[in-house]
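#help-structures
NK: newbie question, is this the right format to request a structure? protein is Oxidoreductase
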Amino acid sequence: MTARIIMRLRVEALEADTPEVLRLTLRHPRRPLLPAFTAGAHVDVRLPDGRTRQYSLCGEPGEAETWQLAIKREDAGRGVSRWLHGEVTAGGDLMVSAPRNNFPVAEGAGRHVLVAGGIGVTPLLAMARVLAARGEAFTLHFCARSAALAPLLAEARAVCGDRLVTWFADEGRRFDAALIGPAEAGAHLYACGPERLTEAVLDHARAGGWAEENLHAEHFQATPDENFKAEPFEITLASTGQRLLVPADRSALEVLREAGLSMPSSCELGICGACICEYRDGIVLHRDKVLPVAARQHRMTPCVSRARVGVTLEL
């Protein structure tokens, strides 16, 4: 496992998209092209003090000269967005990782239903660009307090046309997850936004018979579980047979690093996927918000997930 590549990128332009959202255009200062990305991908933005936050790329996935980020100021957050809103200037530099995609567009789907809440539109707009270019059937439901506070609304309208349905609270229009309806053959559902919206969408879809593999969500934060009681467990490294004890009060990621293993990570909350690794011979207690159900049979996030008694890791 290797650490995630971090690049120093130039802020080519910045503008206020809404009173709460800052839009950044990033370019490599020396190279003509940036790494390619697919719709739904995100990058890590690292501050000078080491704090890191993940942001979805909202521009055209086929565009390699620049990247586009839309960053909402979160006054109750960890301070990354406040720093970016207050300190970033055109011509300045930002430390940004290569893209990772835990939220891709499903291939071969008959129809795509996209549900965005506020700044959650960023990965879904990139998806809509791709789906529109392919001529695939899709609908984007966009929820926000008002049109004035809806990020990237003009672009969403231009990309989606009549495939965009807006739900603005100040107009008395509130999205009802029941509108998703029962499962359809070949349809895939994507949700990104506040946790209450995302969970309501997924709950209604499951109740309507949607298959788990056709449901996709991007999460901004881990869901707290006050009833979870961590227990110690043992890690066996498949490559060497070395055994490591993970105490109840420490994460597997911490123990692996202490043992000298180079383990990439970013959020360390189970929402970004940076530390995902392969496992076998164990019962894993998955506590992340990033791995799909099928992948949980052989992959885990050691930053938050644990095991019952023991697990063998393929590193």
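mod (FA): yep, format's fine, and the tokens are attached above. Helices lie at 80-87, 121-134, 153-160, 195-207, 252-258.
NK: thank you!
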